[in-house]
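Lab manual, section 2.4: Encoding a predicted structure.

Procedure: take the sequence of the chain (464 residues), apply the prediction step described in section 2.3, and record the output as structure tokens. A sample record is shown.
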Amino acid sequence: MTSTFRTLTVPLDAETFPGGLPSFLVRDDVLCWTRREAGLVGFGEIARFTATGPERFLEADIWWRHQVLEADIQDSVGCPGTGPVAFGSFAFSKASAHESRLLVPEIVVGLRDGQAWLTQLTFDDGDLTEAGARAALDRWLHSTSANPGIGANPGTSATVVDDPVPAAAQAGGAVVRPLPLAAGATLHTGSLSEEGWMAAVAAGVAEIRTGALEKLVLARDVVATVPTGVKAAEVLRELSARYRECWTYGVDGLVGATPEMLIQVEGRTAQARVLAGTLDRRDADGMAGSPLEFAERVLAGSEKQRHEHDIAIQSLTTQLAPFSEAMNAHSEPFILELPNVWHLASDVKAELAEVEGHVPTCLALINALHPTAAVCGTPTTVAGALIRKLEHLDRGPYAGPVGWLDAAGNGEWGIALRGAVIESPHTVRLYAGCGVVDGSVPETELAETWAKFRPMLESLGISS
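Recorded output:
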């Protein structure tokens, strides 16, 4: 064995898998980052880094740079995502007990702009050959996989209620939503009842009205128990098919499809997609005009929604500015249409500047950008402290960065939204959050969380 990475990247014929990368989502322990048909899918694990605390991003950055510094890289494709690659998931909070992680797979299949490739990574001394890489991929695709629960989340356990009853009949206690459940599945509230969470929203609004902060993002969790088993590969395939405009992610039991890009780096160009302002598509039922006209009227025409969006944009651009030579963002947000909701969205693009002789890495940028106002609030320090006080929940990896990076400094990191943590072969904890500003109504924010739970509920076979 050697302590140095060795990698071989060879081209693949994309026409041999016309379904794109989702056709490789066949194992429950798969690593994935896909959008439409493109992205990266990984199998196996040859190295892992974990960290907790406020320095988790920088510690991971140092570890990765050390790993690839003297790596033996054979790469005949040469585009972002080829050569050595690590998938990652980071805890939302610096105070979280949840371990942030980088995982280095043995095999990676990539697809970008019609170009497909296969990478094998190893610490072994043996020869790396195209035939060996293809054989290794074949073994992963045709061997049995285990369900990848990543252990119990540090949050409060859900209370089990046997008979689903309307939420109104469960005031002050655990609530089971009256949903049609697949194959005997049950759904329970997590750390707070619906009433308890709405009280937290009201308390947040009261704090905002004192002038202590402008915006607060509050999250909640629900737990689904599926007697037939939580099958991560099926969940990922459903998400990638239903939510093609989102980035579908799977890292060590964290699964979801996020519409929000924290930072994407290619060479010296960085891009982000910021969302703030949400409308359930079901709210358009029976309304005059086209659904999109309704969304534009309610979202773009709402002072509250625009204010929330402006805070999110300012948060990101202010933190990104010191790393940039030039930056541009949409002067007006656009309506992002997803199957479950509409969002006010803005894309930001920046040309990165050299800092102390080097272009900043993905993880260095994440260290500066996270958490944004879109998932925490503003001012960040005040909002973060209030989140810990009101949520009664360790978010774990929810709303933290999730994605990948390569040896050249390229990478894509989304915010882990519209997702869940597989805690055991039969249980999965879902998360959703809402931006709270002056004028937020607790009942409306609660309804928004259910709209945001919908992608994961549907992918589990639980209609909402």
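Check your result against the sample. Residues 303-320 form the longest helix (18 residues).
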